[in-house]
Amino acid sequence: MQEIKKVTVKVPQAYLDFMNQIFEIEKKATNLKEENSIQRNINKMKGIMEEEFFKGTTTIGLSFHNPLGESFTDTRTDCEATISGTSVENLEIIEVIKPIIFYAYQENDKTLKVIVQPAVVIVQSKIIHQ
Amino acid sequence: MENTINYGIDLGTTNSAIAKFVKGEVFIFSNPQDMGSRTLPSIVGYKKDKILVGKQARVFAEREPENVKSVFKRKMGTSESFPVKSLNQSKTPIELSAQVLKELKTFVNTGDNLDAVVITIPASFDTIQSNATKEAGIQAGFKQVVLLQEPIAASLAYANMKKEREMKEGQWLVYDLGGGTFDVALIKIKDGEMKVLDHEGDNFLGGADFDNLIVEKLIIPKLYENYKFSDLEDKMKSASGKFNAVYLKLLRLSEDAKIILSAKTSAEIEVSGFADEDGNDVDIEIVITRSEFNDLIKTYIDGTIEMIKQIITRNSLKAIDLQFTLMVGGSTYIPYVRNRVEEVLQIPVNCEIDPTTAVAIGAAYYSATKPKEIEKTGTKVKTSISIKTSYNKASKEKDELFSARVTGNTDGLSYRITRQDGGFDSGIKKLSERISEDLPLVDGAFNFFSLVVYDNQNNIIETDIEPIGINSGFGISGQPIPEDICLEVDDYDNPGETRLVLVFQKNTILPTKKTLTFPLNKSVLKGSIDEVIRVNVLEGTHLALPEANKPIGIMEITGSMLKRDVSKGSDIEINITMTETRDLSVSAYLSMVDQEFKEIFNPKVRVTSVNYLKEQVEDLSDKLELEIQEATDKEDFETAGALSKLKKEMETVSQETESLTSDDITDKRYQLEDKKRKIAQEIDSATKNKRIQQVKAHYFEVKEECEKMLDENGNDHERKTFNDIVAQESAFFATNSPLKIQEKSDEIHSINSKIRWRTPEFLTSIFQWCKNNQTRMNDQAQAKSLVDAGNFAIESKNWERLSEINSGLLNLLPKGAEKEATTRIGFGL
Question: Cβ(B586)–Cβ(B504) under 8 Å?
Answer without folding.
Answer: no
